[in-house]
Amino acid sequence: MSHSPENTLSTSHSANFSICVYCGSRPGADPRFAQSARDTGALIGIQGWELVYGGGKVGLMGMVADATLDAGGTVYGVIPQTLIDKEVGHTGLTELHVVDNMHTRKTMMFERADAFVALPGGIGTFEELFEIWTWYQLGMHHKPFGLLNVAGYYDPLIAMLDGMVAQGFLNPPVRELLQVGTDAGELLQRLHQLAAPKT
User: Fold this and answer.
1) pLDDT at 14
2) Lower CB density within 10 Å: C or N end of the chain?
3) CB of 33 closer than 8 Å to CB of 27
4) Within 13 Å of residue 46, how many CA atoms lie on the same side as its CB?
């Protein structure tokens, strides 16, 4: 497990809601994956929210960033120098931070975001989502997180999680922390509501 983050938000930005999106650096085989990334980014921009993500210009990552910017939103990217060296960094963002390593990248993204959502992706997307979930379980934060299940991509994972509950490896209340949806707009609004300060 990487370095534990402090449960504090950056105060250097003005967006009323910052959502971190985890997703693939590839477009995937199903065109619905790309469409979901564009829809998610557009919704974030239209709402006047801030996208927090890994700073890449390729795959679903680039699509969600471009769609957010095109819709008038702000985009905060964090990317390690090794990926900049491979020329996959997005240079047109509102803010792009180049860092030394993945641990710093993930901690900065955590600190900036009010909520998290995973779109289709590979092992990096899985790792980021499960780390945020684990940090919540350990009491390190209370920020909501969700899974956008596009075209049934995450059906096997959802079935496995439910199997973990059935086999006694995952407590039902912890399983229920993961917000799952198939509609980007509905899921983003749900995460926004869950992240709203309690009065």
Assistant:
1) 53
2) C
3) yes
4) 10
Q: What is the mean pLDDT of each run of 10 residues along the chain (199 residues)?
A: 32 72 97 98 97 97 98 96 89 95 95 98 97 96 98 98 98 97 97 80
The CA distance from 173 to 181, in Å, is: 18
| Alpha-carbon Rg for the chain in angstroms | 16
Q: Identify which of 5, 22, 34, 24 has the alpha carbon closest to the alpha carbon of residue 115.
A: 22
* pLDDT of the residue at 53: 98
Q: CA dist 42 to 36, 65, 152, 189, Å? A: 10, 9, 22, 13
- Give 72's contacts (C-beta < 8 A, 6+ positions apart): 45, 46, 48
User: Is the CB of residue 53 less than 8 Å from the CB of residue 65?
Assistant: yes
Tell me what pLDDT residue 46 has.
Answer: 97
CATH class of the domain defined by 18-194 = alpha beta
**Any idea where the domains of the chain sit in the sequence?**
18-194
Q: Give the pTM.
A: 0.90
Contact call for residues 163 and 157 (beta carbons, < 8 A): no
**Spacing of C-alpha 111 from chain mean position:** 12
